[in-house]
Amino acid sequence: MDENESNKTEDKKSTFKEEAISFLKTLVVLIVIAIFLRASVVEAYRIPSGSMKPTLQIGDHILVSKLSFGLRLPFISKILWQYDTPDRHDVVVFTRVDDPKTMENESADNIIKRVIGIAGDVIEVKRNKLFVNGKLQEESFARWVHGGDPIGNFGPVKVPEGKILLLGDNRDQSRDSRFWHDPFLPVERLKGRAMIIYWSWADLGRIGTLIK
């Protein structure tokens, strides 16, 4: 091999190495952007249980807006900068502190429920009736499959500042605020507001349904 051919071979190796390094740099940047978007902007979740029926079915895949209530950073469980609070009836995803009433540590589990009480509200559940500030609520989304199991009776309790109270739509089959050691969730534990069903194994006709 003469000197010219040797130089060409070295140039090819050098070019390949530079392209490989450039590709890896681009890949790392894309991964970082994806992690940031997932943690801070929008995230996909799969519904694992029937506690939110009929609004959400087992196997529904949903998108959650993580900018609804504040700014979050990757790997941080709490809101970094909170600029809004949820409204009554919002469907939200959250984590909660470990409940001493259970054997397992559930503090890292993503949970989805509906906001029923906001700061200052007085909440009471009697069988299949929900009272907010003493007024009986008409809820098209609520289901009581056992007619309102007495074990779910709750309150009256007043929601403290900076906290919310949550129930599942499938009221007789939901382990929600009524059964927690501390029934009130700090707003800073919210991960976002549920927006849309983007896939459903239960019913393809549910794809694209807005979550209300």
Residues in helix, %: 10-25%
Low-pLDDT ranges: none
CATH superfamily membership: Umud Fragment, subunit A
Helix/strand order: HEEEEEEEEEEEEE
**Count of helical stretches:** 1
The largest beta-sheet arranges its strands as 1-2-13-5-6-11-12
Total domain modules: 1
What's the level 1 CATH class? Mainly Beta
Overall geometric form:
globular
Q: Rg from C-alpha positions? A: 24 Å
How much of the sequence is in beta strands? 25-35%
Number of strands: 13
Question: Averaged pLDDT, please?
Answer: 85
Largest sheet geometry:
7 strands, antiparallel
Structural class: alpha+beta
What is the fold named in CATH at topology level? Umud Fragment, subunit A
Give the N-to-C terminal Cα separation: 73 Å
Please state the oligomeric state of the protein chains shown: single chain
Question: Which SSEs are present, and which pair or pack?
Answer:
Blueprint: H1 3-40, E1 42-46, E2 60-65, E3 70-71, E4 81-82, E5 91-94, E6 111-117, E7 122-126, E8 129-132, E9 135-136, E10 154-158, E11 163-167, E12 185-186, E13 190-200
Antiparallel strand pairs: 1-2, 2-13, 3-4, 5-6, 5-13, 6-11, 7-8, 7-10, 8-9, 11-12
Describe it for me?
By secondary structure, the chain is of the alpha+beta class. The chain has a single domain (41-206), classed as Umud Fragment, subunit A (Ribbon), CATH 2.10.109.10. It has one helix and 13 strands, in the order αβββββββββββββ. The protein has one helix spanning 3-40, and strands at 42-46, 60-65, 70-71, 81-82, 91-94, 111-117, 122-126, 129-132, 135-136, 154-158, 163-167, 185-186, 190-200. The strands form three sheets. A seven-stranded antiparallel β-sheet has the order 1-2-13-5-6-11-12. β8 (129-132) and β9 form a beta hairpin. It starts with a helix and ends in a 12-residue tail after the last strand.
